[in-house]
Amino acid sequence: MLFSINDDYSIGAYINGEEEFYLMQKGIGLDLGVTENNDTRLYRVIYSHRNDEVYNLYRRYIAEACEALQIIDETRCFIFLFSKIDGMGLCDTYGFTDNKKRILSIVAENQSNFDVISSQLYFYSKEIRTEVVHKGKRIDELVSIRKAHEINQELFNIIIRFCTKVIDSEITSIESLKEYFLNEVSKYSYKMPQEQSLAGLPVVYSQRTTYVATLEGLQISYPEKRGNYLLRKGL
Q1: Is the pLDDT of residue 111 over 70?
Q2: I want to staple 102 with a disulfide (CB 3.0 to 4.6 A). Which of 47, 167, 171, 181 is the partner?
Q3: In angstroms, what CA-CA distances link 98 with 31, 41, 115, 155?
Q4: Taking the model in full, what pTM does it have?
């Protein structure tokens, strides 16, 4: 992929032979990979001029989820991301299962996908969150550090998919959104997931995405590659 910058300091990406410009966004950075499958929903959300209560709430969730991925400690990152998922469904009384049904009904593509993600969240809640939050364990005591990172990435993906779909629904009031959730939940059949090990969980494949974001206070004079990150001097 070829990059450029114009006089307005917009980053240009040449995708499929066409140049597309995007501005950096504080708190979310710039996602260049979302156009791989022609999904423009995230960009519509980021650049929207809406100022209603639904947009403001879920746009904040997106920014907070992106900030969470900057947390180096995978245990703290997991707790932060799961706390966001806990509240996204707007249940009047707290119950993880009821909240989960609302989230699944929005992010799932079909019943099969609904069941797969349901099993994932059940495992994360029962086997990971219980040990981390209530027993004080570190997530790398339960799974490998690589798997912990993958779990956090999947929680992040769920938050982004949920929030962008909610905002893209064009609903502007919380009360109307609650009715929308109930209507979507009625389209799926919820089955209590079976207890299983991490190895027995069905696999969800998420498209790989490249993120570009600013890092304050970083002093470099030439590009450096550190792990999966490419660091460049500020523009």
Answers
A1: yes
A2: 181
A3: 31, 26, 15, 18
A4: 0.70
